[in-house]
């Protein structure tokens, strides 16, 4: 039986053949992970080999038992043929038959194990090539090709991932662009991280940046308040729960106003489920009340969305979600990082049953979800943002990554933003292709989503405003006056031998002509007479 890789140019795939890690990139999309991914297939090979080995061990035990029976029947071999001799012969033949089957199982187990080891070694070699930067010529060539075809000067996803992961100076510049800070500040954070011995991973760099270099941008608590007013609170509406429909909701939420999220309550088979929609980065007034500004990128990548996750839990409670209810989290760009962070947030998972996460254009390679959480990640070949963390998404059974390969351009007259590959409309188109695909990984992943939220239809949508707490008040520094020093009690001897009068203030050490100045009408040398 043979098939084709969806979006893979019709490349044939024979039954039992392992799919490549990145199927034909000349198609509309490439799929990694899921039930059709390399890792899962290697797991299946390992399970198959272990199963065959277990059967061989069981047959070896049966074979040994038959041999012992045959030995005990040896004294009957001289009896009449119709008595013990025939039984002895039958036992011997049975033992040899079991031995033949056991030997074949051992051969099959060895072949499967060798196949698994061969593919594992190939995967390890691919990872090593990427870690050592030996694929740089290929990455550069692909980047130049994308630039020539699309006219977009920004690095693509693959080259950004390589630069951030292998070249910290360039990676620092990429992070600075994502956060809206100066590259020099990232460099200072990197030096501090190296000096502390904590390494230079993206989370460590960001924590050092926001804790030490820019403490004014350190994450602060976030609260969720239901939006009120006409057509702004809870409303019954028809919801498209396909991946494309949910990403379109993320765009609508972002257009509704800064700092908003949406909680959608659906019912599937008599059971309620809740969908959380989180928008992308909303630049401007960095460090202000909007938790989805550039500083929100730092909180999501460096602090696991600590405060935003707590606000989302609060919004779910206000929307009527009860403990144990099933939840789907959907996010675009920065919102996707927050959504994926929920999959490892202990407090969130203790309260709600997070079943599925959908992200688009989000760097989430460093997030390892708890078991039982399925996820689908959409990335675009020309989008540098998903590669800004420097780590590819793991290839596991429950985690599917789709790379969209169609070249895109910024429409004439429109702002390029973070590049045409990062536009939400392109990800919506890619999500529609995902739903139409027959790829086994995508079919299984979208089935999990539909199993939680149903096929769409009537639902209740509630908007919430997320508000970051204001900066804590910082005491104003004491006013510095020329010639003024520390205050002393009246009558105390001042440095230099003078005595203070009532309310006296000593002169500053090292000030030319400076001496003790008091409010008693006396003057220090070099100062004008008191009036």
Please give a structural write-up.
This protein has helices spanning 38-72, 81-131, 136-150, 157-166, 168-179, 183-196, 202-213, 243-256, 294-303, 306-318, 334-341, 346-351, 424-436, 440-453; strands at residues 2-4, 12-14, 29-33, 222-226, 235-239, 260-268, 271-278, 326-332, 353-360, 374-380, 399-404, 457-468. The model is unreliable at 1-26, 131-135 and 483-531 (pLDDT under 50). The strands form two sheets. Strands 3, 4, 5, 6, 7, 8, 9, 10, 11 and 12 form a ten-stranded mixed sheet that branches. Strands 1-2 form a two-stranded antiparallel ribbon. It folds into four domains: 37-131; 167-217; 222-468, no CATH class; 482-531, no CATH class. It has 531 residues and is an alpha/beta fold.
